[in-house]
Design brief:
Largest sheet: none
Oligomer: single chain
Structural class: mainly alpha
Number of strands: 0
Order of helices and strands: HHHHHHHH
Number of helices: 8
Length: 191
Amino acid sequence: MVTEPPSHEAALLIRVAQRDQAALSELYDRYARVLYAVAFKSLRSAEESEEVVLDVFAQVWRTADRYDVGKARVDTWLFMMTRSRVLDRLRTLQRVTKVTVASENFAEIQTPTPGVDPLENVLISERRDRVLAALSQLPEAQRQVIELAYYKGLTQSEIAAQTNLSLGTVKTRIRLGLSKLRVVLGNWEPS
């Protein structure tokens, strides 16, 4: 039985498994644009699509030694990883949308508490509207982690696990978002 030499892409993966950064760079140059196009077709977001491509190549770097030329071609392997990452992103975006809608619906249906001064109810309603308006001014990434923390009661570690972000990224986004909220809300005084 004669075995064929590995394709150029498979040879690149062998080199990546040996921690050859030039091989990873060459593989990236060959496939990044097409993987981005595949991701963008589903996600319709340049930022999310770029994240998917970076995640795929980070996974290639970590798992190149597990690639089996007998199971799939290199391009098929990369497309399968891309599809998996896109589905993960879509699920995450769907959860975030549900949380946002639920928090907006909750804010709309809150009823006055019996025995509370009507003036206090007006002030609470005004504050709620102001906070929701301030939240809508935040970048999506910061708003997402703040809503998960405050509306769902998740810890920063739980947010990191749910959103597939590093704990440091979650902490930074929460800190930046709260800082922006302080600026926006700091200029507001109840009437």
